[in-house]
Design goal:
Number of helices: 3
Radius of gyration: 17 Å
Oligomer: single chain
Number of domains: 1
Strand content: 15-25%
Structural class: alpha+beta
Helix content: 40-55%
């Protein structure tokens, strides 16, 4: 593999990591460490956030099924509040 191809792969990897970090930051900060078994055991409220692609939460595909999973989690545990951040462009 030539040097140019190696640089391209490294650049692509860096962009992927940066994109993931920005996506995760959109949901807020990490919760404080706890020794409890989760929201149901501790009684604490939890905000479960997902970041969609440009298809939105009603894309009849992955985003829609992930959103349905978050809503099912809320039905199973009232301490969970699902939210989402929708991307408006492929570069988000």
């Amino acid at each position: 593999m030539n040097v140019l191809a190696q640089r391209g792969i490294r650049l692509l990897g860096g962009v992927a990591v940066a994109t993931l970090a920005v996506s995760l930051a959109a949901c807020g900060s990490a919760p404080a460490k706890s020794s409890s078994a989760g929201a149901s055991a501790s009684g604490k409220k939890v905000e479960a956030c997902m970041v969609t692609d440009t298809g939105g939460i009603d894309d009849k595909s992955f985003n829609q099924s992930a959103w349905a999973g978050l809503q099912a989690a809320q039905k199973a545990n009232s301490n969970i509040t699902p939210t989402f951040v929708a991307s408006t462009a492929e570069t988000d």
